Structure of Large ribosomal subunit protein bL33:
Amino acid sequence: MARRNDVRPVIKLRSTAGTGYTYVTRKNRRNDPDRLVVRKYDPAVRRHVEFREER
């Protein structure tokens, strides 16, 4: 069985702190059609900041 990449694509979450740090994850395009924004830990600035989806 092949994996359906069009429904759950791989996305990059880039830090809004300007450090260039990224997380890589998958998202369900049907549930979240807009760009994803998540608060996660950025080790470069050693605190939690917003990470936005990058295309």
Remarks:
- The chain has a mean pLDDT of 92.
